[in-house]
Request: fold
Amino acid sequence: MFSNTRHLRIEWGDCDPAGIVFYPRYFAMFDTSTTEMMEAAIGMSKFEYLKAFKFIGHPIVETRAIFRVPNRFGDRVSITTSIAGLGKSSIKIEHRLMKGDDISVEGFETRVFVAPDPADPERMKGQPIPAEFVARLTHSK
Reply:
């Protein structure tokens, strides 16, 4: 399955008064990592691939994290984001945030590809992931 790694520095705004990363910031980091992985796999920006495949998006329907080692302002970390599984319209994604050789945080999310509901355009409805999209997500980088 496809994976992508990005490197970043923990910024002041990521931290709480104790000087460690405030846990919701990890979910924002993981969201950005998902976008970067999808863009790398598909070869288009998120705006372009949502338009090309006629999706509204791929919202999170489940998420969780395991916090192992705290991160602090100025730490250099890497996040490897991988496809863990594909359903008809859903995708399971795993994030591994590393600080040096240590696994600092593991994140897990399930997303569903959605488009406007034909019966009610004000609502979203799960849509099958197109075969071309699946093919690009299932090859190894």
